[in-house]
């Protein structure tokens, strides 16, 4: 969460084990957010995100859950009553390779416009891979792990 603040987030909410709806509406004084981006790709977050935008707000789906997403009535009503716009995005390779997304990303990386360093937890030799996976399972990895052969 500290990485998000370093990269410019105004506020952060730890929604582990709870619905972020109440925290978002408390933080925004009952308004909701302009745009809610679902990037985790979990079944839970894919449903939760629908309750977060304000009236006329937007939901952007970046993550892809690998199971059915069940939306309870409250969240479904938020789509209709708040007149939400919902967008899907594709963040992977497009064809023919390299596609526009790939070239755009490389351009921003070359120009140092994207701040990637704060996202990297560690750079380690490939032989330490098992240790890194164990750390990830135990919550000791806070960002990306770069394996260097």
TrEMBL record:
Keyword set, alphabetical order: Oxidoreductase
Molecular function GO terms recorded: oxidoreductase activity
Keyword DNA-binding among record annotations: no
Residues of the Alcohol dehydrogenase-like C-terminal domain: 2-93
Keyword Oxidoreductase found: yes
A Pfam family of this chain: ADH_zinc_N
Domain of life per record: Bacteria
The protein's name in its UniProt record: Zinc-binding dehydrogenase
Organism the protein comes from: Pectinatus cerevisiiphilus
Phylogenetic lineage: Bacteria, Bacillati, Bacillota, Negativicutes, Selenomonadales
